[in-house]
TrEMBL record:
Any one Gene Ontology molecular-function term assigned to this protein's record: diguanylate cyclase activity
Domain PAC: from-to ranges: 245-297
Name of the top EC class for this enzyme: transferase
Organism in which the protein naturally occurs: Paenibacillus mellifer
Residue ranges constituting the GGDEF domain according to the UniProt record: 325-456
InterPro entries: Biofilm_reg_signaling, GGDEF_dom, Nucleotide_cyclase, PAC, PAS, PAS-assoc_C, PAS-like_dom_sf, PAS_fold_3
Sorted UniProt keywords: Membrane, Nucleotidyltransferase, Transferase, Transmembrane, Transmembrane helix
Superkingdom as given in the UniProt entry: Bacteria
Coiled-coil region list: none
Transmembrane segment boundaries: 12-31, 62-79, 85-102, 139-159
Keyword flag Transmembrane helix: yes
Domain PAS: 170-242
UniProt xrefs under SUPFAM superfamilies: Nucleotide cyclase (SSF55073), PYP-like sensor domain (PAS domain) (SSF55785)
Protein name, per record: Diguanylate cyclase
Length: 463
Protein backbone atom coordinates (compact mmCIF):
# COMPACT_ATOMS: atom_id res chain seq x y z
CA UNK A 1 0.00 0.00 0.00
CA UNK A 2 1.50 3.35 -0.99
CA UNK A 3 1.64 6.53 1.08
CA UNK A 4 -1.32 8.11 -0.72
CA UNK A 5 -3.58 5.16 0.06
CA UNK A 6 -2.50 5.14 3.72
CA UNK A 7 -3.24 8.87 3.92
CA UNK A 8 -6.76 8.28 2.62
CA UNK A 9 -7.27 5.58 5.25
CA UNK A 10 -5.98 7.97 7.92
CA UNK A 11 -8.64 10.46 6.86
CA UNK A 12 -11.33 7.79 7.23
CA UNK A 13 -10.01 6.74 10.64
CA UNK A 14 -9.98 10.35 11.82
CA UNK A 15 -13.65 10.70 10.92
CA UNK A 16 -14.56 7.40 12.58
CA UNK A 17 -12.66 8.26 15.75
CA UNK A 18 -14.35 11.65 15.96
CA UNK A 19 -17.72 9.94 15.82
CA UNK A 20 -16.68 7.19 18.21
CA UNK A 21 -15.25 9.61 20.80
CA UNK A 22 -18.45 11.64 20.71
CA UNK A 23 -20.74 8.60 21.05
CA UNK A 24 -18.64 6.95 23.78
CA UNK A 25 -18.58 10.17 25.83
CA UNK A 26 -22.35 10.42 25.49
CA UNK A 27 -22.84 6.80 26.59
CA UNK A 28 -20.61 7.28 29.63
CA UNK A 29 -22.60 10.34 30.61
CA UNK A 30 -25.89 8.45 30.31
CA UNK A 31 -24.65 5.41 32.23
CA UNK A 32 -22.83 7.29 35.01
CA UNK A 33 -25.33 10.18 35.22
CA UNK A 34 -22.45 12.61 34.82
CA UNK A 35 -19.63 13.25 32.40
CA UNK A 36 -16.04 12.98 33.54
CA UNK A 37 -14.21 15.77 31.73
CA UNK A 38 -11.10 13.63 31.46
CA UNK A 39 -12.57 11.34 28.77
CA UNK A 40 -13.76 14.01 26.28
CA UNK A 41 -10.64 16.08 26.97
CA UNK A 42 -8.44 13.10 26.15
CA UNK A 43 -10.45 12.29 23.02
CA UNK A 44 -10.43 15.90 21.86
CA UNK A 45 -6.68 16.23 22.40
CA UNK A 46 -6.03 13.05 20.42
CA UNK A 47 -8.25 14.26 17.59
CA UNK A 48 -6.39 17.57 17.41
CA UNK A 49 -3.03 15.82 17.22
CA UNK A 50 -4.24 13.35 14.60
CA UNK A 51 -5.98 16.08 12.60
CA UNK A 52 -2.72 18.01 12.46
CA UNK A 53 -0.77 14.95 11.37
CA UNK A 54 -3.32 13.97 8.73
CA UNK A 55 -3.68 17.54 7.49
CA UNK A 56 0.06 17.92 6.99
CA UNK A 57 0.14 14.79 4.80
CA UNK A 58 3.59 14.06 6.23
CA UNK A 59 4.64 10.68 7.54
CA UNK A 60 1.36 8.84 6.72
CA UNK A 61 2.74 5.52 8.00
CA UNK A 62 3.76 7.07 11.29
CA UNK A 63 0.32 8.71 11.51
CA UNK A 64 -1.26 5.29 11.00
CA UNK A 65 0.76 3.79 13.87
CA UNK A 66 0.02 6.82 16.06
CA UNK A 67 -3.69 6.47 15.36
CA UNK A 68 -3.68 2.83 16.48
CA UNK A 69 -1.73 3.65 19.64
CA UNK A 70 -3.95 6.62 20.54
CA UNK A 71 -7.10 4.57 20.04
CA UNK A 72 -5.64 1.88 22.31
CA UNK A 73 -4.87 4.49 24.98
CA UNK A 74 -8.38 5.95 24.76
CA UNK A 75 -10.04 2.52 25.07
CA UNK A 76 -7.86 1.57 28.03
CA UNK A 77 -8.68 4.84 29.79
CA UNK A 78 -12.37 4.05 29.30
CA UNK A 79 -11.85 0.63 30.89
CA UNK A 80 -9.91 2.15 33.79
CA UNK A 81 -12.65 4.69 34.44
CA UNK A 82 -15.36 2.03 34.45
CA UNK A 83 -13.82 -1.30 35.39
CA UNK A 84 -16.59 -3.56 34.08
CA UNK A 85 -16.86 -6.37 31.57
CA UNK A 86 -18.92 -4.03 29.35
CA UNK A 87 -16.05 -1.54 29.17
CA UNK A 88 -13.60 -4.37 28.61
CA UNK A 89 -15.54 -5.48 25.53
CA UNK A 90 -14.81 -2.10 23.93
CA UNK A 91 -11.17 -3.14 23.61
CA UNK A 92 -12.27 -5.38 20.73
CA UNK A 93 -12.86 -2.26 18.66
CA UNK A 94 -9.11 -1.76 18.37
CA UNK A 95 -8.33 -4.71 16.03
CA UNK A 96 -11.70 -4.29 14.35
CA UNK A 97 -11.10 -0.66 13.35
CA UNK A 98 -7.52 -1.42 12.33
CA UNK A 99 -8.91 -3.58 9.50
CA UNK A 100 -9.77 -0.36 7.68
CA UNK A 101 -6.11 0.02 6.77
CA UNK A 102 -5.77 -3.46 5.24
CA UNK A 103 -2.18 -3.21 6.41
CA UNK A 104 -0.25 -5.91 8.25
CA UNK A 105 1.60 -3.37 10.40
CA UNK A 106 -1.65 -1.79 11.56
CA UNK A 107 -3.48 -5.02 12.40
CA UNK A 108 -0.43 -6.63 14.01
CA UNK A 109 0.07 -3.60 16.25
CA UNK A 110 -3.63 -3.40 17.09
CA UNK A 111 -3.88 -7.14 17.75
CA UNK A 112 -0.80 -7.12 19.95
CA UNK A 113 -2.02 -4.12 21.98
CA UNK A 114 -5.41 -5.79 22.38
CA UNK A 115 -3.79 -9.04 23.54
CA UNK A 116 -1.45 -7.33 26.00
CA UNK A 117 -4.22 -5.13 27.38
CA UNK A 118 -6.51 -8.12 27.81
CA UNK A 119 -3.89 -10.14 29.67
CA UNK A 120 -3.09 -7.15 31.85
CA UNK A 121 -6.69 -6.77 32.98
CA UNK A 122 -7.10 -10.51 33.47
CA UNK A 123 -4.15 -10.77 35.84
CA UNK A 124 -4.04 -7.30 37.39
CA UNK A 125 -7.72 -6.43 37.80
CA UNK A 126 -9.59 -9.73 37.73
CA UNK A 127 -11.31 -8.93 41.05
CA UNK A 128 -12.89 -5.80 39.63
CA UNK A 129 -13.69 -7.13 36.18
CA UNK A 130 -14.74 -10.68 36.98
CA UNK A 131 -15.64 -10.56 40.70
CA UNK A 132 -12.54 -12.64 41.52
CA UNK A 133 -13.96 -15.83 39.96
CA UNK A 134 -11.25 -16.18 37.33
CA UNK A 135 -8.94 -19.20 37.30
CA UNK A 136 -5.96 -20.18 35.15
CA UNK A 137 -8.12 -21.88 32.53
CA UNK A 138 -10.14 -18.69 32.13
CA UNK A 139 -6.91 -16.75 31.71
CA UNK A 140 -5.84 -19.16 28.99
CA UNK A 141 -9.17 -18.55 27.30
CA UNK A 142 -8.50 -14.82 27.16
CA UNK A 143 -5.02 -15.50 25.82
CA UNK A 144 -6.33 -17.79 23.09
CA UNK A 145 -9.09 -15.29 22.31
CA UNK A 146 -6.55 -12.49 21.90
CA UNK A 147 -4.35 -14.65 19.69
CA UNK A 148 -7.39 -15.62 17.63
CA UNK A 149 -8.27 -11.97 17.08
CA UNK A 150 -4.69 -11.29 16.00
CA UNK A 151 -4.66 -14.27 13.65
CA UNK A 152 -8.11 -13.50 12.28
CA UNK A 153 -7.23 -9.92 11.35
CA UNK A 154 -4.05 -11.09 9.62
CA UNK A 155 -5.93 -13.76 7.63
CA UNK A 156 -8.68 -11.28 6.81
CA UNK A 157 -6.15 -8.89 5.31
CA UNK A 158 -4.46 -11.70 3.39
CA UNK A 159 -7.74 -12.87 1.85
CA UNK A 160 -8.98 -9.34 1.19
CA UNK A 161 -5.75 -8.34 -0.50
CA UNK A 162 -5.84 -11.41 -2.71
CA UNK A 163 -9.43 -10.69 -3.72
CA UNK A 164 -8.56 -7.06 -4.30
CA UNK A 165 -5.56 -8.05 -6.42
CA UNK A 166 -7.71 -10.40 -8.47
CA UNK A 167 -10.24 -7.64 -9.01
CA UNK A 168 -7.49 -5.24 -10.08
CA UNK A 169 -6.01 -7.85 -12.42
CA UNK A 170 -9.43 -8.52 -13.94
CA UNK A 171 -10.03 -4.80 -14.33
CA UNK A 172 -6.64 -4.37 -15.98
CA UNK A 173 -7.29 -7.27 -18.34
CA UNK A 174 -10.65 -5.81 -19.23
CA UNK A 175 -9.03 -2.41 -19.78
CA UNK A 176 -6.38 -3.98 -22.00
CA UNK A 177 -9.05 -5.81 -23.99
CA UNK A 178 -11.11 -2.65 -24.41
CA UNK A 179 -8.07 -0.72 -25.55
CA UNK A 180 -7.01 -3.45 -27.99
CA UNK A 181 -10.43 -3.51 -29.68
CA UNK A 182 -10.90 0.28 -29.59
CA UNK A 183 -13.84 0.43 -27.21
CA UNK A 184 -14.96 3.56 -25.40
CA UNK A 185 -17.33 3.68 -22.43
CA UNK A 186 -19.69 6.57 -21.66
CA UNK A 187 -22.18 7.38 -18.89
CA UNK A 188 -24.69 10.22 -18.72
CA UNK A 189 -26.17 11.00 -15.28
CA UNK A 190 -29.54 12.79 -15.36
CA UNK A 191 -29.12 13.97 -11.76
CA UNK A 192 -25.81 15.75 -12.30
CA UNK A 193 -26.38 16.31 -16.05
CA UNK A 194 -22.78 15.26 -16.65
CA UNK A 195 -21.25 13.05 -19.30
CA UNK A 196 -18.36 10.81 -18.22
CA UNK A 197 -16.19 8.95 -20.74
CA UNK A 198 -13.30 6.48 -20.64
CA UNK A 199 -9.80 6.73 -22.08
CA UNK A 200 -10.91 4.57 -25.00
CA UNK A 201 -13.66 7.06 -25.81
CA UNK A 202 -11.06 9.83 -26.02
CA UNK A 203 -8.85 7.77 -28.31
CA UNK A 204 -11.68 6.95 -30.71
CA UNK A 205 -13.36 10.36 -30.90
CA UNK A 206 -10.35 12.61 -30.34
CA UNK A 207 -12.30 14.61 -27.74
CA UNK A 208 -10.84 14.90 -24.23
CA UNK A 209 -12.74 14.30 -20.99
CA UNK A 210 -12.57 18.01 -20.22
CA UNK A 211 -14.13 19.01 -23.53
CA UNK A 212 -16.92 16.46 -23.09
CA UNK A 213 -17.61 16.87 -19.37
CA UNK A 214 -21.15 18.15 -18.99
CA UNK A 215 -21.38 18.73 -22.75
CA UNK A 216 -23.79 16.05 -23.92
CA UNK A 217 -24.54 18.23 -26.96
CA UNK A 218 -20.99 17.49 -28.11
CA UNK A 219 -22.24 14.01 -28.93
CA UNK A 220 -24.40 15.50 -31.65
CA UNK A 221 -21.69 17.74 -33.09
CA UNK A 222 -19.29 14.82 -33.60
CA UNK A 223 -21.86 12.79 -35.59
CA UNK A 224 -21.48 12.95 -39.37
CA UNK A 225 -24.23 15.20 -40.80
CA UNK A 226 -25.52 12.38 -43.02
CA UNK A 227 -25.95 10.14 -39.95
CA UNK A 228 -27.73 12.59 -37.63
CA UNK A 229 -30.98 10.74 -38.24
CA UNK A 230 -29.46 7.67 -36.59
CA UNK A 231 -28.44 9.80 -33.60
CA UNK A 232 -32.02 10.98 -33.14
CA UNK A 233 -33.23 7.38 -33.40
CA UNK A 234 -30.84 6.40 -30.60
CA UNK A 235 -32.20 9.20 -28.42
CA UNK A 236 -35.79 8.09 -29.01
CA UNK A 237 -35.03 4.44 -28.28
CA UNK A 238 -33.11 5.18 -25.08
CA UNK A 239 -35.17 8.01 -23.59
CA UNK A 240 -38.67 7.76 -25.05
CA UNK A 241 -39.02 4.04 -25.73
CA UNK A 242 -36.79 3.24 -22.72
CA UNK A 243 -35.10 0.39 -24.52
CA UNK A 244 -31.58 -0.57 -25.54
CA UNK A 245 -30.19 0.71 -28.82
CA UNK A 246 -27.53 -0.46 -31.26
CA UNK A 247 -26.58 1.70 -34.24
CA UNK A 248 -23.66 2.16 -36.62
CA UNK A 249 -22.72 5.64 -37.78
CA UNK A 250 -19.83 7.89 -38.71
CA UNK A 251 -18.17 10.47 -36.47
CA UNK A 252 -15.91 13.37 -37.35
CA UNK A 253 -12.86 13.82 -35.12
CA UNK A 254 -11.55 17.31 -34.30
CA UNK A 255 -8.76 16.80 -36.86
CA UNK A 256 -11.37 16.10 -39.56
CA UNK A 257 -10.77 12.35 -39.76
CA UNK A 258 -13.95 10.31 -40.29
CA UNK A 259 -14.38 7.07 -38.38
CA UNK A 260 -17.09 4.45 -38.25
CA UNK A 261 -18.38 3.43 -34.82
CA UNK A 262 -20.95 1.03 -33.47
CA UNK A 263 -22.84 2.59 -30.57
CA UNK A 264 -24.54 0.48 -27.91
CA UNK A 265 -26.54 2.06 -25.11
CA UNK A 266 -29.10 1.20 -22.48
CA UNK A 267 -31.15 3.19 -19.95
CA UNK A 268 -31.14 2.64 -16.17
CA UNK A 269 -34.05 3.38 -13.85
CA UNK A 270 -34.51 3.82 -10.11
CA UNK A 271 -37.02 1.93 -7.94
CA UNK A 272 -39.75 4.38 -8.97
CA UNK A 273 -39.18 3.69 -12.65
CA UNK A 274 -37.61 7.08 -13.35
CA UNK A 275 -34.75 7.30 -15.82
CA UNK A 276 -31.59 8.12 -13.86
CA UNK A 277 -28.74 7.48 -16.28
CA UNK A 278 -27.69 6.19 -19.67
CA UNK A 279 -24.70 3.94 -20.18
CA UNK A 280 -23.12 2.57 -23.29
CA UNK A 281 -20.06 1.81 -25.35
CA UNK A 282 -18.75 2.85 -28.73
CA UNK A 283 -16.69 0.40 -30.77
CA UNK A 284 -14.55 1.59 -33.65
CA UNK A 285 -15.46 -0.42 -36.74
CA UNK A 286 -13.73 1.67 -39.40
CA UNK A 287 -11.61 -1.20 -40.69
CA UNK A 288 -14.58 -3.55 -40.71
CA UNK A 289 -16.66 -1.02 -42.62
CA UNK A 290 -13.92 -0.47 -45.17
CA UNK A 291 -13.61 -4.22 -45.58
CA UNK A 292 -17.37 -4.52 -46.04
CA UNK A 293 -17.30 -1.72 -48.61
CA UNK A 294 -14.43 -3.44 -50.41
CA UNK A 295 -16.27 -6.75 -50.43
CA UNK A 296 -19.44 -5.03 -51.62
CA UNK A 297 -17.49 -3.23 -54.33
CA UNK A 298 -15.72 -6.37 -55.51
CA UNK A 299 -19.04 -8.20 -55.66
CA UNK A 300 -20.11 -5.87 -58.46
CA UNK A 301 -16.85 -4.53 -59.88
CA UNK A 302 -13.71 -5.78 -61.54
CA UNK A 303 -10.83 -5.83 -59.06
CA UNK A 304 -8.18 -4.58 -61.49
CA UNK A 305 -9.97 -1.81 -63.37
CA UNK A 306 -12.82 -0.92 -61.02
CA UNK A 307 -15.30 -1.29 -63.89
CA UNK A 308 -18.64 -3.01 -63.47
CA UNK A 309 -18.44 -6.80 -63.57
CA UNK A 310 -20.83 -9.23 -65.25
CA UNK A 311 -23.21 -9.24 -62.27
CA UNK A 312 -23.63 -5.48 -62.17
CA UNK A 313 -23.78 -5.25 -65.93
CA UNK A 314 -26.60 -7.81 -66.03
CA UNK A 315 -28.54 -5.85 -63.41
CA UNK A 316 -28.08 -2.62 -65.37
CA UNK A 317 -29.27 -4.28 -68.56
CA UNK A 318 -32.35 -5.59 -66.75
CA UNK A 319 -33.18 -2.03 -65.64
CA UNK A 320 -32.84 -0.75 -69.20
CA UNK A 321 -34.73 -3.57 -70.87
CA UNK A 322 -38.43 -3.12 -71.55
CA UNK A 323 -38.46 0.69 -71.51
CA UNK A 324 -39.24 0.86 -75.22
CA UNK A 325 -35.98 2.62 -75.98
CA UNK A 326 -33.15 1.38 -78.21
CA UNK A 327 -30.30 -0.50 -76.55
CA UNK A 328 -26.85 -1.14 -78.01
CA UNK A 329 -24.02 -3.38 -76.84
CA UNK A 330 -20.47 -2.72 -77.94
CA UNK A 331 -18.08 -5.66 -77.59
CA UNK A 332 -14.43 -4.53 -77.56
CA UNK A 333 -11.35 -6.77 -77.72
CA UNK A 334 -7.84 -5.29 -77.65
CA UNK A 335 -5.58 -6.22 -80.55
CA UNK A 336 -2.10 -7.58 -79.88
CA UNK A 337 -2.56 -7.43 -76.08
CA UNK A 338 -0.53 -10.64 -75.70
CA UNK A 339 2.45 -8.96 -77.36
CA UNK A 340 2.30 -6.15 -74.79
CA UNK A 341 2.48 -8.69 -71.96
CA UNK A 342 5.29 -10.60 -73.63
CA UNK A 343 7.33 -7.50 -74.42
CA UNK A 344 6.83 -5.30 -71.36
CA UNK A 345 5.57 -7.77 -68.76
CA UNK A 346 2.23 -8.39 -67.08
CA UNK A 347 2.55 -5.25 -64.99
CA UNK A 348 2.52 -3.20 -68.18
CA UNK A 349 -0.48 -5.18 -69.40
CA UNK A 350 -2.37 -4.48 -66.19
CA UNK A 351 -1.55 -0.77 -66.38
CA UNK A 352 -2.74 -0.71 -69.99
CA UNK A 353 -6.05 -2.33 -69.04
CA UNK A 354 -6.62 0.21 -66.27
CA UNK A 355 -5.75 3.05 -68.62
CA UNK A 356 -8.12 1.76 -71.31
CA UNK A 357 -10.87 1.36 -68.71
CA UNK A 358 -10.48 4.99 -67.65
CA UNK A 359 -10.60 6.17 -71.24
CA UNK A 360 -13.74 4.20 -72.03
CA UNK A 361 -15.57 5.55 -68.98
CA UNK A 362 -14.63 9.11 -69.95
CA UNK A 363 -15.97 8.62 -73.48
CA UNK A 364 -19.50 7.52 -72.58
CA UNK A 365 -22.35 9.15 -70.70
CA UNK A 366 -22.99 8.75 -66.98
CA UNK A 367 -26.10 6.66 -67.68
CA UNK A 368 -24.11 4.25 -69.87
CA UNK A 369 -22.03 1.43 -68.41
CA UNK A 370 -18.60 -0.01 -69.21
CA UNK A 371 -17.95 -3.58 -68.11
CA UNK A 372 -14.84 -5.74 -68.17
CA UNK A 373 -15.82 -9.30 -68.98
CA UNK A 374 -12.32 -10.63 -68.39
CA UNK A 375 -8.86 -10.56 -69.93
CA UNK A 376 -8.76 -7.81 -72.55
CA UNK A 377 -12.49 -7.93 -73.35
CA UNK A 378 -14.82 -5.03 -72.57
CA UNK A 379 -18.50 -4.50 -73.25
CA UNK A 380 -20.33 -1.18 -73.20
CA UNK A 381 -24.07 -0.71 -72.66
CA UNK A 382 -25.51 2.29 -74.52
CA UNK A 383 -29.16 3.12 -73.88
CA UNK A 384 -31.52 5.42 -75.76
CA UNK A 385 -29.12 6.07 -78.64
CA UNK A 386 -29.95 5.67 -82.30
CA UNK A 387 -27.56 4.19 -84.83
CA UNK A 388 -25.88 7.52 -85.56
CA UNK A 389 -25.32 8.12 -81.86
CA UNK A 390 -23.76 4.70 -81.42
CA UNK A 391 -21.45 5.30 -84.39
CA UNK A 392 -20.29 8.60 -82.91
CA UNK A 393 -19.35 6.82 -79.69
CA UNK A 394 -17.43 4.30 -81.79
CA UNK A 395 -15.52 7.05 -83.52
CA UNK A 396 -14.58 8.70 -80.21
CA UNK A 397 -13.29 5.39 -78.87
CA UNK A 398 -11.32 4.67 -82.03
CA UNK A 399 -9.73 8.13 -82.02
CA UNK A 400 -8.85 7.88 -78.34
CA UNK A 401 -7.26 4.44 -78.65
CA UNK A 402 -5.25 5.59 -81.66
CA UNK A 403 -3.37 8.00 -79.39
CA UNK A 404 -1.63 5.00 -77.82
CA UNK A 405 -0.39 4.65 -74.24
CA UNK A 406 2.94 5.73 -72.79
CA UNK A 407 4.43 3.19 -70.40
CA UNK A 408 7.65 4.23 -68.67
CA UNK A 409 8.61 6.51 -71.50
CA UNK A 410 7.69 4.08 -74.28
CA UNK A 411 4.66 4.67 -76.51
CA UNK A 412 2.59 1.53 -76.88
CA UNK A 413 0.26 1.40 -79.87
CA UNK A 414 -3.30 0.46 -78.98
CA UNK A 415 -6.11 -0.74 -81.23
CA UNK A 416 -9.23 -2.81 -80.73
CA UNK A 417 -11.71 -4.87 -82.69
CA UNK A 418 -15.26 -3.79 -81.90
CA UNK A 419 -18.54 -5.50 -82.64
CA UNK A 420 -21.97 -4.02 -82.04
CA UNK A 421 -25.45 -5.41 -81.61
CA UNK A 422 -28.57 -3.25 -81.32
CA UNK A 423 -32.14 -3.77 -80.19
CA UNK A 424 -34.31 -0.88 -81.45
CA UNK A 425 -37.12 -1.52 -78.95
CA UNK A 426 -34.85 -2.59 -76.08
CA UNK A 427 -36.59 -5.92 -75.52
CA UNK A 428 -33.87 -8.28 -76.74
CA UNK A 429 -32.25 -10.89 -74.54
CA UNK A 430 -28.85 -9.99 -73.06
CA UNK A 431 -27.23 -13.30 -73.96
CA UNK A 432 -28.44 -13.02 -77.55
CA UNK A 433 -27.09 -9.50 -77.87
CA UNK A 434 -23.75 -10.45 -76.32
CA UNK A 435 -23.41 -13.46 -78.59
CA UNK A 436 -24.13 -11.41 -81.69
CA UNK A 437 -21.80 -8.57 -80.63
CA UNK A 438 -19.06 -11.10 -79.89
CA UNK A 439 -19.50 -12.80 -83.26
CA UNK A 440 -19.43 -9.43 -85.01
CA UNK A 441 -16.26 -8.49 -83.17
CA UNK A 442 -14.51 -11.65 -84.39
CA UNK A 443 -15.66 -10.92 -87.94
CA UNK A 444 -14.09 -7.49 -87.58
CA UNK A 445 -10.86 -8.99 -86.20
CA UNK A 446 -10.58 -11.39 -89.17
CA UNK A 447 -11.37 -8.65 -91.66
CA UNK A 448 -8.96 -6.17 -90.19
CA UNK A 449 -11.54 -3.41 -89.87
CA UNK A 450 -11.67 -1.83 -86.44
CA UNK A 451 -15.36 -1.04 -86.20
CA UNK A 452 -18.40 -2.51 -87.84
CA UNK A 453 -22.09 -2.14 -87.16
CA UNK A 454 -23.88 -5.44 -87.49
CA UNK A 455 -26.53 -5.66 -90.15
CA UNK A 456 -28.69 -7.76 -87.84
CA UNK A 457 -29.94 -5.01 -85.61
CA UNK A 458 -33.38 -6.44 -84.97
CA UNK A 459 -32.65 -9.30 -82.61
CA UNK A 460 -35.26 -11.92 -81.80
CA UNK A 461 -37.08 -11.67 -78.49
CA UNK A 462 -36.44 -14.49 -76.01
CA UNK A 463 -38.89 -17.32 -76.31
Amino acid sequence: MDAHQIHNKNVWMLRLLAGFFAVSSLLLMIVNRNLDAEIPLLGGSMLLVLAGMVGSRKWPRFTMVLTIVMLSVYLNVMVMKDMTVTSYIFLGLLPLLSLIYLNYTAVTLAGTLHLVSGLYYVFAHKELLFSGNLNLNDAMYFLVYGLFILLFTAIYILVTKKLSQRAEDSEQRLRDILESVSVGIWTYDFNTMELEVSDGFEQITGYTRQSLKGQVSRFQTMIHPEDLGLFYEIQQELIIKKSSSVKECRIIRPDGEIKWIQGRGRPYFNSLGNLVRLEGVIIEITERKHLEETIQFLAFHDELTGLANRTKFTAKFAETKGQGKPVALMFLDLDNFKEVNDTFGHEAGDELLKHIAGRLVSLVRAEDMVCRLGGDEFVILLADLNEDGVLKVMERIRSSLAEGYVYRGTLIGVSASIGISMSPDGNANLEDMLRLADATMYDVKRGGDSIQLTAERNLPLPS
